[in-house]
Design brief:
alpha/beta; TIM Barrel; Rossmann fold; 4 domains; six-stranded mixed β-sheet; five-stranded parallel β-sheet; 20 helices; 18% strand; globular; binds 1-deoxynojirimycin
Length: 754
């Protein structure tokens, strides 16, 4: 009897182990047989300890005997945060020449929006709606980082973010899955270049897989509860697009979704990532996210955490120590199979081969520095210019004309070189930042007298002691530019807020400056959408610059004086009140949507009867709309949309149509407009969003010029994951809109027919 039980147990474990290996035998399009043979050859020679070493990533802690010995013995496969190429070469030489099998290390670093030359934060980059700009910026970041010996960045972050409270919205591409996918793919192409083995390429890492941006209450690391269809239709789209663009690696997220932490989510890592998407790079955990599954209550101890992560398909443990300390035991006990280990190592070695690290493991430390090269600064300036969004421009306050002789520059962010760079700027040097003050003085100082007064020492400063001086300065000028917002530390990882209005006494500062009676331009530098309704009313014009990086100052100065014309569009909906969150344009319709004529709080008569307001969905106090819709952004010129035409009003299930609209520049400035195409599937087998962005184009028009803008809309663009979690194109009626933001009104109807 005992034997029988043992036999059944053995059979069960054999079944579980075979079942647990992700299906690595499925062909990936990119696998090179020669490389695979080299990997197999290495695997045959590697001990279990050496294999587990490849799966271990540690943060660099200085050159000492410990680290040298760890590299020599093959117990580390990767280091993060080593940024001195000489130190990198020292350890790499040990890996290549003194470790038994000469396997190179791969060095990772958070190069999120630039290495030395800082670009706008990713949310700002998304506001450019210009994938080519994003690609160029990532290529600059890659060239600078690779010259410092960095092989691999932990970007792009493609977590859909519908919540401005979440500090990491700064690092995201905003709320829209299509925009996130287009921009994420462009960033991957920029980092990785034509070939990962180029001396100016670095490997990308798509993160955080998956759903991290849906953290409850916008509190970092919090649980998410994303149901399966929403996961497919919204949350996975961006990651998938970036993986299709060839991203070499993927990072698991910190959050649990519906109770399953991402680093233990086998369905996600095996079924979706490997089996469906055919991803053949490697998966790294987030920092210590494997042992943190103990805190989640998903693993009892480090051993169980390692077991769950390895069997789920996490190839490399970032700073968790769970793999180096637990995996060998688990393999010996038969709980983690050799196949699981071999697959993980195979994935890691594949990327090391693709990066050419076996042939070119070292960094040329004698090459001239490329940091802050002229061309890099020019690209950063162009990106910053395109990323700034004009939210208001009453009476054509902007651009300033030559009548402006004296400009009062006020505010805590007007000359804040560190804060202007935003979150994730480990390597950017604030001494290289050009602030609005410096830029205005240098580029416009000959013609315009710039009077500078801070008003507040920093964005959280509560003291109004310097207000009188600021107001006096405003009185002396023709125009007032107030640069307010958030310090870099107020957004980014673990920096969430419950209230996203301007902090410190900044709101009061704007009201104070208003008293001068001069045209008041508010420039906001921030890491998130802020609730700035009152300040928007007080100011005559508002430019919103998501932390714009090293060249933010020159970009803003040129925008103020019309040397550049704003073209940025909001990648997130701006709420009026924090209580509107989550607020995003591509929501579903309720059964009782508001007509927008309903009574608001202060208009309700006393003792009004229970149902007299009508029963529809809106906030009595905040009304119906957000402060600004997704895709919104003004220009110094005006654009008119007209004459929408469809090549056909019916799309066959495998067909497409052309959608054309006329765009006219009706103002006085040559400018760029981001033309956006939105669609609504009127009736579906599951309720579909009221609008979804399907395409966009940046169109450059001279003043007075018009152009036909055409989009091709294919039936596949209208597919979605339905109730049975299959991707389908459903016949039926649709509506589309073409315009300059998600509230576009120029519309047409079409159908999908079988
Ligand atoms: C934790 C963050 O969540 C992740 O985005 C980052 O890449 C790693 N730490 C490495 O620094």
């Amino acid at each position: 009897m005992k034997h029988k039980v043992n036999f059944i147990r053995t059979l069960f474990f054999a079944f579980v182990l075979v079942f647990l290996a992700c299906d690595a035998t499925k062909p990936s399009t990119a696998k090179d047989p020669e490389t695979e043979a080299k990997i197999d050859n290495l695997l045959m020679q590697m001990t279990l300890e050496e294999k587990i070493g490849q799966m271990n990533q540690l943060s660099f802690w200085g050159i000492n005997d410990d680290v040298k010995e760890a590299v020599r013995s093959g117990s580390i496969g990767s280091l993060l945060n080593i940024i001195d190429p000489k130190q990198g070469n020292t350890l790499q030489k040990i890996a290549m020449e003194e470790s038994r099998l000469g396997i190179p290390l791969i060095y990772g670093r958070d190069v999120i929006h630039g290495f030395k030359t800082m670009f706008p934060i990713p949310l700002g980059q998304a506001a450019t709606f210009n994938p080519e700009t994003i690609r160029e910026g990532a290529a600059v970041a890659a060239a600078e980082a690779r010259s410092a010996g960095i092989h691999w960045t932990f970007a792009p972050m493609l977590d859909i973010s519908r919540d401005g409270r979440w500090g990491r919205i700064a690092e995201s591409m905003g709320e829209d899955p299509y925009l996130t996918g287009v921009m994420g793919a462009a960033m991957v192409r920029g980092f990785q270049g034509e070939n990962l083995a180029n001396s100016t390429s670095i490997a990308a890492c798509v993160k955080h897989f998956f759903g991290y941006g849906a953290a409850e209450a916008g509190k970092d690391y919090n649980s998410t509860n994303i149901p399966p269809a929403l996961m497919r239709n919204v949350y996975l789209q961006g990651y998938k697009a970036a993986i299709e663009a060839g991203a070499a690696t993927v990072m698991t997220a910190f959050n649990d979704n519906d109770g399953v932490p991402a680093s233990g989510n086998r369905f996600l890592l095996c079924n979706i990532l490997r089996d469906e998407w055919k991803f053949d790079g490697f998966v790294v955990s987030d920092w210590a996210s494997i042992p943190e599954m103990i805190n989640h209550g998903f693993a009892a101890n480090a051993k169980e955490a390692a077991l769950r992560a390895a069997n789920a398909g996490v190839d490399m443990d970032m700073m968790g120590m769970a793999y180096p300390q637990q995996l060998a035991k688990l393999v010996k006990e038969g709980k983690v199979s050799q196949t699981v280990i071999d697959d993980a190592v195979r994935n890691i070695l594949r990327i090391k081969f693709r990066m050419g690290l076996f042939d070119n493991p070292y960094t040329d430390t004698s090459a001239p520095s490329v940091f802050y090269a002229e061309s890099h600064l020019a690209t950063a300036k162009k990106t910053a210019e395109e990323s700034v969004v004009l939210l208001k421009n009453a009476n054509q306050t902007l651009p300033f004309t030559d009548k402006v002789k004296t400009l009062a520059l006020i505010g805590p962010l007007a000359d804040a070189p560190h804060d202007q760079m935003g979150t994730w700027t480990f390597d950017g040097d604030k001494n290289k930042t050009i602030t609005p003050l410096a830029a205005l003085q240098t580029a416009y100082g000959n013609n315009v007298k710039v009077l500078y007064e801070k008003g507040l020492a920093y964005s959280r400063d509560l003291s109004t002691a310097a207000f009188a001086k600021a107001l006096q300065t405003a009185h002396q000028a023709d125009v007032v530019v107030a640069v307010v917002g958030e310090e870099a530390i107020m957004s980014g990882e673990a920096h969430s807020l419950a209230d996203i209005s301007l902090k410190g006494a900044q709101k009061a500062l704007i009201q104070e400056l208003k008293k001068a009676g001069k045209p008041l331009v508010m420039v906001v530098m921030a890491g998130r959408p802020l609730t700035i309704g009152d300040e928007l009313e007080a100011a005559d014009a508002v430019l919103y610059a998501f932390h714009p990086g090293t060249m933010g100052g020159p970009a803003i100065a040129d925008l103020l004086f019309g040397k550049a014309v704003p073209s940025g569009k909001l990648p997130v909906t701006f709420p009026k009140e924090v209580g509107q969150i989550p607020v995003y344009y591509n929501h579903n319709s309720s059964g009782r949507p508001a007509n927008k004529t309903e009574t608001l709080l202060y208009d309700i008569p006393l003792e009004a009867s229970q149902t007299s307001l009508g029963n529809t969905g809106y906030h009595l106090d905040a009304g119906f709309d957000p402060l600004f819709p997704f895709g919104f952004g003004l220009s110094y010129t005006t654009f008119e949309y007209s004459n929408i035409r469809l090549s056909d009003t019916k799309i066959k299930t495998f067909g497409s149509i052309d959608v054309t609209a006329q765009l006219k520049n009706t103002g006085n400035y040559d400018a760029t407009e981001v033309v956006q195409l939105y669609v609504r599937d009127i009736t579906g087998s599951i309720a579909r969003p009221v609008r979804e962005l399907k395409s966009f184009k940046r169109v450059v028009l001279k003043a007075g010029e018009s152009q036909d803008v055409t989009f091709t809309l294919a039936s596949d663009d209208l597919a979605f994951w339905g109730i049975d979690l299959k991707r389908i194109v459903e016949p039926g009626a649709f509506k589309l809109w073409v315009g300059g933001n998600s509230d576009a009104t120029l519309e047409a109807d079409f159908e999908i027919v079988e």
